[in-house]
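User: Second chain of the day. Same drill as before.
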Amino acid sequence: MSFGERGESAKLWKEGKTLDEVKSIRRAEAEAAADALGAAHLECFDLGDYPLELDRDDKGKLVDLIRKVQPSFMMSHSQYDPNNTDHMYLTQVALEVRMIAQAWGHNPGEKVLGAPQLYLFEPHQTEQMGWKPDTFLDITPVWDKKRAAMEHMQGQVHLWDYYTRVAQQRANHFKRNSGGMSGGRDCKYAEGFQSIFPRTVDKL
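Assistant: Same format as last time:
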């Protein structure tokens, strides 16, 4: 939705960059990170930040994109974030556009969205945000790609090692919750997520 140009780019501002320069650098970083991850397409809405605000038309464009992509799951920030209200605002937007994309009465005749899970990825200061993981994903096979993507984010160097340590900690939780001392699956790097909606299963 934005490049985080005002609130998430302190390093660049300290270097004396202008707003346009910061946005250009952050766009290039996002594109390089997307390439490192093998993303097929990166859509940039460029709506600004601090504060981030979406009007009805912006939300409509996001609904159109979601219906076009038909995602099997969605991801957003924690529902509460006292350090960055843009983050929790965007999660509320994600819930709203997901709801609209599911509505048969919104632009009748279009393919409606199913019921993709909304996963909240791990925030920077978990305890302050009331975020509680209920899903752990083993990312060991693709860790090198994630680290490479992070290292393209030159404006947030301080988070590279932080999220490396987080991935190692979550790997411990993955092992523990996949069998623990009785034979848990080995895992070196993992991510934690909090799911919003119930998951449907055939077996427990």
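The CA atoms of residues 38 and 165 lie 23 Å apart.

User: Great, on to the next one.
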